[in-house]
Design brief:
The protein is mostly helical and about 400 residues long. Helix content is about 50%, strand content about 5%. It contains 15 helices and 4 strands. The strands form 2 sheets. It has a two-stranded antiparallel ribbon with strand order 1-2. The chain has a two-stranded antiparallel sheet with strand order 3-4. The longest helix has about 35 residues. It is globular. It starts with a helix and ends in a 9-residue tail after the last helix.
Protein backbone atom coordinates (compact mmCIF):
# COMPACT_ATOMS: atom_id res chain seq x y z
CA UNK A 1 0.00 0.00 0.00
CA UNK A 2 2.82 2.41 0.88
CA UNK A 3 4.57 2.12 -2.49
CA UNK A 4 1.31 2.38 -4.42
CA UNK A 5 0.34 5.56 -2.58
CA UNK A 6 3.78 7.07 -3.10
CA UNK A 7 3.94 6.32 -6.81
CA UNK A 8 0.44 7.48 -7.55
CA UNK A 9 1.06 10.74 -5.73
CA UNK A 10 4.40 11.31 -7.41
CA UNK A 11 3.65 10.32 -11.00
CA UNK A 12 0.49 12.40 -11.27
CA UNK A 13 2.34 15.65 -10.65
CA UNK A 14 3.10 18.52 -12.94
CA UNK A 15 6.79 18.95 -12.10
CA UNK A 16 9.49 21.50 -12.69
CA UNK A 17 13.24 22.12 -12.98
CA UNK A 18 15.54 23.25 -10.15
CA UNK A 19 18.89 23.07 -8.50
CA UNK A 20 19.20 23.26 -4.71
CA UNK A 21 19.50 27.08 -4.73
CA UNK A 22 16.21 28.94 -4.22
CA UNK A 23 17.05 31.63 -6.78
CA UNK A 24 16.43 29.38 -9.78
CA UNK A 25 13.86 30.25 -12.39
CA UNK A 26 10.63 28.25 -12.06
CA UNK A 27 10.11 27.69 -15.79
CA UNK A 28 7.43 24.96 -15.52
CA UNK A 29 9.07 23.04 -18.37
CA UNK A 30 11.31 20.29 -17.02
CA UNK A 31 11.42 17.76 -14.22
CA UNK A 32 12.18 18.46 -10.59
CA UNK A 33 15.12 16.35 -9.47
CA UNK A 34 15.55 16.13 -5.72
CA UNK A 35 19.03 15.91 -4.18
CA UNK A 36 20.16 12.57 -2.80
CA UNK A 37 20.12 13.83 0.79
CA UNK A 38 18.57 16.57 2.90
CA UNK A 39 21.06 19.23 1.87
CA UNK A 40 19.90 22.57 0.47
CA UNK A 41 21.91 25.72 -0.14
CA UNK A 42 21.44 29.35 -1.05
CA UNK A 43 24.35 31.41 -2.33
CA UNK A 44 26.71 28.55 -1.53
CA UNK A 45 25.67 28.21 2.12
CA UNK A 46 23.27 25.81 3.81
CA UNK A 47 19.67 26.98 4.07
CA UNK A 48 18.71 24.13 6.45
CA UNK A 49 18.22 24.76 10.18
CA UNK A 50 16.59 22.66 12.91
CA UNK A 51 18.82 23.34 15.92
CA UNK A 52 15.83 24.02 18.15
CA UNK A 53 14.53 20.51 17.57
CA UNK A 54 17.93 19.03 18.37
CA UNK A 55 17.91 20.98 21.64
CA UNK A 56 14.50 19.67 22.65
CA UNK A 57 15.45 16.08 21.78
CA UNK A 58 18.59 16.42 23.91
CA UNK A 59 16.50 17.84 26.75
CA UNK A 60 14.21 14.83 26.47
CA UNK A 61 17.11 12.45 27.07
CA UNK A 62 17.97 14.14 30.37
CA UNK A 63 14.32 14.16 31.38
CA UNK A 64 14.06 10.44 30.66
CA UNK A 65 17.05 9.74 32.88
CA UNK A 66 15.53 11.79 35.68
CA UNK A 67 12.26 9.84 35.42
CA UNK A 68 14.36 6.79 36.31
CA UNK A 69 16.03 8.35 39.34
CA UNK A 70 15.22 7.76 43.00
CA UNK A 71 16.47 11.31 43.65
CA UNK A 72 13.98 13.03 41.35
CA UNK A 73 11.79 15.83 42.70
CA UNK A 74 8.60 17.27 41.30
CA UNK A 75 10.17 20.72 41.08
CA UNK A 76 13.18 19.41 39.19
CA UNK A 77 11.11 17.34 36.76
CA UNK A 78 8.69 20.19 36.18
CA UNK A 79 11.55 22.57 35.38
CA UNK A 80 12.92 20.12 32.80
CA UNK A 81 9.51 19.65 31.21
CA UNK A 82 7.86 23.07 31.51
CA UNK A 83 10.77 25.44 32.09
CA UNK A 84 10.81 28.54 34.25
CA UNK A 85 9.45 31.92 33.16
CA UNK A 86 9.36 30.90 29.49
CA UNK A 87 12.92 29.55 29.52
CA UNK A 88 14.18 26.01 29.75
CA UNK A 89 15.75 25.08 33.09
CA UNK A 90 16.87 22.24 35.33
CA UNK A 91 19.29 20.43 33.02
CA UNK A 92 22.80 19.39 34.00
CA UNK A 93 23.97 20.30 30.48
CA UNK A 94 24.07 24.08 30.79
CA UNK A 95 23.60 24.52 27.04
CA UNK A 96 20.05 23.16 27.40
CA UNK A 97 19.03 25.83 29.93
CA UNK A 98 17.89 29.40 29.35
CA UNK A 99 16.40 28.92 25.90
CA UNK A 100 12.85 29.22 24.58
CA UNK A 101 13.02 25.55 23.60
CA UNK A 102 10.78 23.83 26.14
CA UNK A 103 9.41 20.30 25.75
CA UNK A 104 6.15 20.96 27.57
CA UNK A 105 5.26 23.93 25.37
CA UNK A 106 5.28 21.61 22.35
CA UNK A 107 3.40 18.71 23.97
CA UNK A 108 -0.16 18.17 22.72
CA UNK A 109 0.19 21.64 21.25
CA UNK A 110 -0.56 21.44 17.51
CA UNK A 111 -3.44 23.33 15.94
CA UNK A 112 -4.93 20.06 14.67
CA UNK A 113 -4.63 17.76 17.69
CA UNK A 114 -3.55 19.93 20.60
CA UNK A 115 -5.30 19.42 23.91
CA UNK A 116 -4.79 21.07 27.29
CA UNK A 117 -6.36 18.07 29.01
CA UNK A 118 -3.91 15.70 27.34
CA UNK A 119 -0.98 17.97 28.21
CA UNK A 120 -2.22 17.88 31.82
CA UNK A 121 -1.81 14.09 31.83
CA UNK A 122 1.94 14.56 31.51
CA UNK A 123 2.05 17.11 34.33
CA UNK A 124 0.03 14.73 36.49
CA UNK A 125 2.46 11.90 35.74
CA UNK A 126 5.34 14.04 36.98
CA UNK A 127 3.46 14.65 40.21
CA UNK A 128 2.61 10.95 40.58
CA UNK A 129 6.23 9.87 40.02
CA UNK A 130 7.68 12.35 42.51
CA UNK A 131 4.93 11.98 45.11
CA UNK A 132 4.26 8.24 45.01
CA UNK A 133 6.95 6.32 43.12
CA UNK A 134 10.13 7.95 44.46
CA UNK A 135 9.19 7.65 48.18
CA UNK A 136 8.45 3.94 47.66
CA UNK A 137 11.54 3.18 45.59
CA UNK A 138 12.76 0.47 47.98
CA UNK A 139 9.35 -1.02 48.78
CA UNK A 140 7.72 -4.00 47.12
CA UNK A 141 4.86 -3.15 44.81
CA UNK A 142 1.51 -4.70 45.64
CA UNK A 143 -2.09 -4.23 44.62
CA UNK A 144 -2.89 -0.59 45.32
CA UNK A 145 0.68 0.09 46.47
CA UNK A 146 3.52 1.89 44.73
CA UNK A 147 6.88 0.16 44.80
CA UNK A 148 9.34 -2.04 42.94
CA UNK A 149 8.67 -5.29 41.12
CA UNK A 150 11.27 -7.63 39.60
CA UNK A 151 11.17 -10.15 36.78
CA UNK A 152 11.20 -13.84 37.81
CA UNK A 153 14.92 -14.15 37.04
CA UNK A 154 15.69 -11.00 39.03
CA UNK A 155 17.41 -9.44 36.03
CA UNK A 156 15.20 -6.36 35.83
CA UNK A 157 13.34 -4.24 38.37
CA UNK A 158 10.60 -1.80 37.52
CA UNK A 159 9.23 0.99 39.73
CA UNK A 160 5.44 1.26 39.67
CA UNK A 161 2.78 3.60 40.98
CA UNK A 162 -0.23 2.35 42.95
CA UNK A 163 -2.04 1.43 39.72
CA UNK A 164 0.84 -0.80 38.62
CA UNK A 165 2.01 1.67 35.99
CA UNK A 166 5.64 2.40 35.16
CA UNK A 167 5.50 6.18 34.83
CA UNK A 168 8.63 6.75 32.74
CA UNK A 169 7.22 4.42 30.06
CA UNK A 170 3.75 5.95 30.06
CA UNK A 171 5.30 9.39 29.87
CA UNK A 172 7.88 8.83 27.14
CA UNK A 173 5.87 6.56 24.89
CA UNK A 174 3.11 9.14 25.20
CA UNK A 175 5.56 11.88 24.22
CA UNK A 176 6.37 9.99 21.02
CA UNK A 177 2.89 10.87 19.82
CA UNK A 178 2.03 13.99 21.77
CA UNK A 179 5.40 15.69 21.22
CA UNK A 180 7.49 14.46 18.29
CA UNK A 181 4.82 13.01 15.99
CA UNK A 182 2.30 15.76 16.70
CA UNK A 183 4.79 18.50 15.95
CA UNK A 184 5.73 16.89 12.65
CA UNK A 185 2.44 15.71 11.15
CA UNK A 186 -0.04 18.11 12.75
CA UNK A 187 2.07 21.24 12.90
CA UNK A 188 5.26 21.92 10.97
CA UNK A 189 4.50 20.16 7.67
CA UNK A 190 0.89 21.36 7.68
CA UNK A 191 -0.34 24.47 5.82
CA UNK A 192 -1.40 25.97 9.16
CA UNK A 193 2.32 26.54 9.74
CA UNK A 194 3.79 26.52 6.25
CA UNK A 195 1.31 28.99 4.76
CA UNK A 196 0.66 31.18 7.80
CA UNK A 197 0.63 34.93 7.28
CA UNK A 198 2.70 36.01 4.28
CA UNK A 199 4.76 32.82 4.03
CA UNK A 200 3.52 31.85 0.56
CA UNK A 201 4.26 35.29 -0.89
CA UNK A 202 7.57 35.46 0.96
CA UNK A 203 8.61 32.04 -0.33
CA UNK A 204 7.47 32.91 -3.86
CA UNK A 205 9.66 35.99 -3.77
CA UNK A 206 12.62 34.52 -1.83
CA UNK A 207 12.06 36.85 1.10
CA UNK A 208 14.32 35.51 3.83
CA UNK A 209 13.50 35.19 7.52
CA UNK A 210 15.33 38.07 9.17
CA UNK A 211 19.10 37.63 8.90
CA UNK A 212 18.78 33.91 8.20
CA UNK A 213 19.57 32.07 4.99
CA UNK A 214 16.10 30.56 4.62
CA UNK A 215 12.52 31.55 4.04
CA UNK A 216 10.03 31.00 6.85
CA UNK A 217 8.36 28.21 4.88
CA UNK A 218 11.66 26.42 4.31
CA UNK A 219 12.44 26.69 8.00
CA UNK A 220 9.09 25.33 9.15
CA UNK A 221 9.55 22.25 6.97
CA UNK A 222 13.08 21.87 8.38
CA UNK A 223 11.71 22.02 11.91
CA UNK A 224 9.32 19.18 11.14
CA UNK A 225 12.26 17.23 9.73
CA UNK A 226 14.27 17.98 12.87
CA UNK A 227 11.77 16.36 15.23
CA UNK A 228 12.61 13.03 13.59
CA UNK A 229 16.23 13.48 12.48
CA UNK A 230 17.52 16.04 14.98
CA UNK A 231 19.94 13.63 16.70
CA UNK A 232 21.29 12.01 13.53
CA UNK A 233 24.40 14.20 13.46
CA UNK A 234 26.97 13.08 10.87
CA UNK A 235 24.67 10.25 9.79
CA UNK A 236 22.10 12.65 8.33
CA UNK A 237 23.05 12.06 4.70
CA UNK A 238 22.59 8.29 5.14
CA UNK A 239 19.43 8.44 7.21
CA UNK A 240 17.24 7.08 4.43
CA UNK A 241 19.06 3.76 4.27
CA UNK A 242 20.48 3.57 7.81
CA UNK A 243 18.67 5.79 10.33
CA UNK A 244 20.71 5.88 13.52
CA UNK A 245 17.90 5.35 16.01
CA UNK A 246 19.33 8.03 18.27
CA UNK A 247 17.31 9.11 21.29
CA UNK A 248 14.31 7.67 23.11
CA UNK A 249 11.47 9.13 21.06
CA UNK A 250 10.05 8.68 17.56
CA UNK A 251 13.29 7.89 15.74
CA UNK A 252 14.00 4.93 18.05
CA UNK A 253 10.80 3.15 17.03
CA UNK A 254 10.85 4.38 13.45
CA UNK A 255 14.13 2.53 13.08
CA UNK A 256 12.67 -0.59 14.70
CA UNK A 257 9.76 -0.64 12.26
CA UNK A 258 12.22 -0.29 9.39
CA UNK A 259 14.67 -3.02 10.34
CA UNK A 260 14.90 -4.39 13.87
CA UNK A 261 11.20 -5.17 14.21
CA UNK A 262 10.97 -6.07 10.56
CA UNK A 263 7.41 -4.82 10.30
CA UNK A 264 7.97 -2.63 7.26
CA UNK A 265 11.44 -2.63 5.71
CA UNK A 266 11.97 0.42 3.52
CA UNK A 267 9.75 2.81 5.47
CA UNK A 268 12.85 4.83 6.42
CA UNK A 269 13.74 5.50 2.79
CA UNK A 270 10.15 6.38 1.90
CA UNK A 271 9.90 8.97 4.67
CA UNK A 272 13.36 10.43 4.07
CA UNK A 273 12.71 10.76 0.35
CA UNK A 274 9.38 12.47 1.03
CA UNK A 275 11.06 14.98 3.35
CA UNK A 276 13.71 15.68 0.70
CA UNK A 277 11.16 16.03 -2.10
CA UNK A 278 8.87 18.19 0.03
CA UNK A 279 11.73 20.60 0.79
CA UNK A 280 12.64 20.53 -2.90
CA UNK A 281 9.05 21.44 -3.76
CA UNK A 282 9.21 24.44 -1.42
CA UNK A 283 12.39 25.64 -3.12
CA UNK A 284 10.53 25.37 -6.44
CA UNK A 285 7.31 26.96 -5.14
CA UNK A 286 5.31 23.85 -5.93
CA UNK A 287 2.94 23.63 -2.97
CA UNK A 288 0.79 20.84 -4.38
CA UNK A 289 3.87 18.64 -4.56
CA UNK A 290 4.88 19.75 -1.08
CA UNK A 291 1.52 18.77 0.38
CA UNK A 292 1.54 15.42 -1.39
CA UNK A 293 4.88 14.61 0.19
CA UNK A 294 3.53 15.77 3.56
CA UNK A 295 0.65 13.31 3.21
CA UNK A 296 3.12 10.46 2.67
CA UNK A 297 5.04 11.45 5.80
CA UNK A 298 1.86 11.71 7.87
CA UNK A 299 0.68 8.22 7.00
CA UNK A 300 4.06 6.50 7.22
CA UNK A 301 5.05 7.98 10.58
CA UNK A 302 1.59 7.25 11.99
CA UNK A 303 2.18 3.58 11.22
CA UNK A 304 4.98 3.55 13.82
CA UNK A 305 2.42 4.30 16.52
CA UNK A 306 0.04 1.62 15.29
CA UNK A 307 2.75 -1.02 15.06
CA UNK A 308 4.11 -0.46 18.54
CA UNK A 309 0.75 -0.06 20.23
CA UNK A 310 -0.08 -3.55 18.95
CA UNK A 311 3.43 -4.86 19.64
CA UNK A 312 3.28 -3.96 23.33
CA UNK A 313 -0.28 -5.15 23.81
CA UNK A 314 0.81 -8.51 22.39
CA UNK A 315 3.91 -8.47 24.58
CA UNK A 316 1.80 -7.85 27.68
CA UNK A 317 -0.40 -10.83 26.85
CA UNK A 318 2.51 -13.21 26.26
CA UNK A 319 4.41 -12.13 29.39
CA UNK A 320 1.39 -12.28 31.67
CA UNK A 321 0.47 -15.73 30.39
CA UNK A 322 4.08 -16.84 31.00
CA UNK A 323 3.94 -15.66 34.61
CA UNK A 324 6.29 -12.71 34.12
CA UNK A 325 4.12 -10.19 35.94
CA UNK A 326 6.83 -7.55 36.19
CA UNK A 327 7.60 -7.77 32.49
CA UNK A 328 3.90 -7.57 31.71
CA UNK A 329 3.55 -4.34 33.72
CA UNK A 330 6.55 -2.90 31.89
CA UNK A 331 5.25 -3.83 28.44
CA UNK A 332 1.75 -2.55 28.94
CA UNK A 333 3.11 0.69 30.38
CA UNK A 334 4.81 1.14 27.02
CA UNK A 335 1.62 0.09 25.28
CA UNK A 336 -0.37 2.68 27.25
CA UNK A 337 1.89 5.41 25.94
CA UNK A 338 1.58 4.27 22.34
CA UNK A 339 -2.20 4.02 22.70
CA UNK A 340 -2.29 7.59 24.02
CA UNK A 341 -0.22 8.56 20.99
CA UNK A 342 -2.84 7.26 18.54
CA UNK A 343 -4.85 10.47 18.84
CA UNK A 344 -1.89 12.37 17.34
CA UNK A 345 -1.63 10.22 14.22
CA UNK A 346 -2.64 11.67 10.85
CA UNK A 347 -4.25 9.68 8.02
CA UNK A 348 -3.05 12.10 5.35
CA UNK A 349 -6.35 13.97 5.44
CA UNK A 350 -5.66 15.62 8.81
CA UNK A 351 -7.71 13.18 10.85
CA UNK A 352 -6.29 10.73 13.42
CA UNK A 353 -6.44 7.02 12.73
CA UNK A 354 -8.09 6.69 16.16
CA UNK A 355 -9.79 9.67 17.75
CA UNK A 356 -9.06 11.23 21.12
CA UNK A 357 -12.33 10.25 22.81
CA UNK A 358 -11.99 6.57 21.89
CA UNK A 359 -8.35 6.43 22.99
CA UNK A 360 -8.74 8.26 26.27
CA UNK A 361 -11.95 6.48 27.24
CA UNK A 362 -10.12 3.15 26.90
CA UNK A 363 -7.15 4.39 28.95
CA UNK A 364 -9.35 5.82 31.68
CA UNK A 365 -11.67 2.85 31.98
CA UNK A 366 -10.31 -0.49 30.78
CA UNK A 367 -6.71 0.45 31.66
CA UNK A 368 -7.23 2.38 34.89
CA UNK A 369 -5.61 -0.30 37.10
CA UNK A 370 -2.92 -2.57 35.68
CA UNK A 371 -3.07 -4.91 38.69
CA UNK A 372 -6.59 -6.08 37.89
CA UNK A 373 -6.35 -5.90 34.11
CA UNK A 374 -6.79 -9.10 32.13
CA UNK A 375 -5.77 -9.96 28.59
CA UNK A 376 -9.23 -10.15 27.05
CA UNK A 377 -9.57 -6.38 26.68
CA UNK A 378 -6.77 -6.67 24.15
CA UNK A 379 -7.28 -10.10 22.57
CA UNK A 380 -11.08 -10.34 22.20
CA UNK A 381 -12.57 -10.03 18.72
CA UNK A 382 -13.66 -6.52 19.70
CA UNK A 383 -10.57 -5.90 21.84
CA UNK A 384 -8.12 -3.06 21.38
CA UNK A 385 -5.67 -4.97 19.18
CA UNK A 386 -8.44 -5.63 16.66
CA UNK A 387 -9.73 -2.06 16.95
CA UNK A 388 -6.32 -0.54 16.21
CA UNK A 389 -5.89 -2.74 13.14
CA UNK A 390 -9.40 -1.87 11.97
CA UNK A 391 -8.77 1.85 12.48
CA UNK A 392 -5.81 1.74 10.11
CA UNK A 393 -7.54 -0.53 7.61
CA UNK A 394 -10.51 1.84 7.49
CA UNK A 395 -8.03 4.42 6.19
CA UNK A 396 -6.51 2.11 3.59
CA UNK A 397 -3.49 1.04 5.64
CA UNK A 398 -2.76 -2.57 6.55
CA UNK A 399 -0.31 -3.06 9.43
CA UNK A 400 1.95 -6.07 8.90
CA UNK A 401 1.63 -7.42 12.43
CA UNK A 402 -0.41 -10.26 13.94
Amino acid sequence: MKNIIYKSMFLSLAIFSFSCDSDNDNSNTNTIVAPDSYEFTRNGESSVSFSGQTTRLMQAEELYAELNSSEATETGLDLMFNGDSNSSAGFSDASLNGTSKIIGSKTAASTLAGSATTKARFDNMINDFATNVVPNWGSDAGVGQAGAISTPDGAKTYHLNAQGQEIDQLFFKGLIGAFTLDQIVNNYIHPNQLDSGTRIDDNDNDVLSGDNNYTDMEHKWDEGFGYLYGLEGDNLASSGTTPSGGGSLLMKYFKKVNDEGGYEPGIAQTVYDAFVMGRTAIVNKDYALRDQQAAIIKVELSKVIGYYAIHYMNDFVSKLEAGNVAGAHHSISEGWGFLLSLQFTNNGNDEPFMDKSTVESFLDNEMSDFHSMGTEIFTASDGMIALVKQAFEANGVTLNID
